[in-house]
Known about the structure:
- The chain is mainly alpha-helical.
- 80% of the residues lie in helices and 0% in strands.
- Helix 6 runs parallel beside helix 9.
- The longest helix has 39 residues.
- 57% of the residues are buried.
Amino acid sequence: MGAKKYTGQNKMGAMPIPRLLLNMGIPMIISMLGQALYNFVDTFFVSQIPDTAEVAEMGDKAVNALTLASPIQMIIIAICVGIGIATNSLLSKHLGEKDRERASRVAGNAVFLCFLFLILTMLFGIFLARGYISSQTTDGVVIDLGTSYLKIVTICSIGSIGYMCVEKIVMGCGNTRATMIGQLSGACINIIMDPILIFGLLGLPAMGVIGAAWATVIGQVASFLIICYINYFRNKEIDNRIRYYLPNKEILKEMGPIAAPAAVMQIMTPIMSYGMNLILGRVSAYAVTAYGVYYRVQYFMYMADFGLNNADIAITGYNYGARNRKRIVDSMRFSVLYAVIMMVVGTVGIQIFAPQLISIFSVTEESARLALYALRIATIGFTLGGVNIILQGVLQALNRGVPSLIVTMLRMVVIALPLTYLFTEIDSGGALFWAAIPIAEAVGLIVAILFTVRRFRSLDVQ
Length: 462
């Protein structure tokens, strides 16, 4: 019914906003949850790796290794998301302006940028992976496990980087269901391959953490192939001629002011993780493992919010190009409403089922104790963080990348890390230092609201 009603029109400019956000947002939320499953499932299965005659607490060490590797994975995602946000925002904006030629050039130059980044990522895996892991721990077993995992997922990152690039092109054209199909397919393959490769099922050798890395890579490549088929054979909104993939100075100049702050903004997440690993490492290795458990749960929640945020960016960008202020305002209002509902429900669920969530991971009693503190205390800030993410997306879609970056720096680095360090000095028992996270979210939200109000006062659309 909806598809027939908007035939010949892009739904981002025609469908009622509350319905449009659900139409585009729900597939994106499912897609992002699928992405979150990669880390969550990997952590679950590697935590089940049995001890050996040489190594006790192998599950804890495996989780620790993935926790230390995850900031680099987050940096890869961050830079791709930065390029992707610029692609999503500008592509949808030019489609709103009915400029198919420029929209096609934005898509092609996004692929060019991601190809350059793929080369850099592979070089990091070859030459720097071990040095990076060694900078965070002196445990030889953890260093070996973390290095092996990180090398595989960086050297073989074509599936991850390629998928995130093409996904944002398809998303900017308004097709979020395709991204859901691609992401969930890869996540399902990863879930199937994890136990087979980690524990050596179906006659294959047990590969442990290395198996988790290969399962992730296989899932990512599958997602990439699916989204490529959808974009290059089914996407009618843009053209995919070879000339559009050549670097264009004007297009790159247009993408830069959005992509660079967005990428740096996303990099704040792994910087925070790296900083938390170092700070909590002063307390104990158990605290680092506990943060790894919390981070997986937190990542799962925020990925859902990022799904809604991605839909809002495309809708806002399209209507900014179409000069429709009312639809921009409505998109922000309903995005915030949906985010609050989603994050409140998630927080309540985590508070109720925190022990059960922790029990999914086979960690030591001390790690579980600290993880319980994290889930009880730090998750109080989820709703604040959810609204922060939506408002930052609105600023990015309206060409205000730097204010969005400032909010992220406050939330994740400027406030969170010094407070965590201070609280570990006051109390190393684990009941206090997790409070730094919701406090930082509260400060970030105040600043985000101020920036958003200022932007809407100066908005040059009717």
